[in-house]
Design goal:
Order of helices and strands: HH
Distance between the termini: 51 Å
Largest sheet: none
Number of helices: 2
Strand content: under 5%
Structural class: mainly alpha
Helix content: 55-70%
Radius of gyration: 21 Å
């Protein structure tokens, strides 16, 4: 993909409202950051290999810890 904006097409394009355009740009920034983070992890795996499974936290434990954090943030319903 190119960092340059696409050339204008022959057909008339609908312009976004400024707030919508800014939201799309913010989403692009977040998506690019997520892709960069994934690429860094993959490069680390390629360089150093996979970690020893004995040194890793099982995904079930990670999931439960995350669900506990989410439940603590959510107000209790009476």
């Amino acid at each position: 993909m190119s960092e340059q904006p696409a050339a204008p097409a022959d057909t008339a394009a609908r312009q976004l409202e400024p707030a919508a355009a800014e939201a799309v740009r913010a989403y692009a920034v977040k998506t690019r950051a997520d892709a960069d983070r994934l690429a860094a992890v993959l490069e680390d795996i390629a360089t150093n290999g996979l970690p020893d499974p004995e040194q890793c936290t099982p995904w079930e434990e990670l999931r439960e810890a995350h669900l506990t954090r989410l439940a603590a943030q959510r107000p209790a319903v009476a």
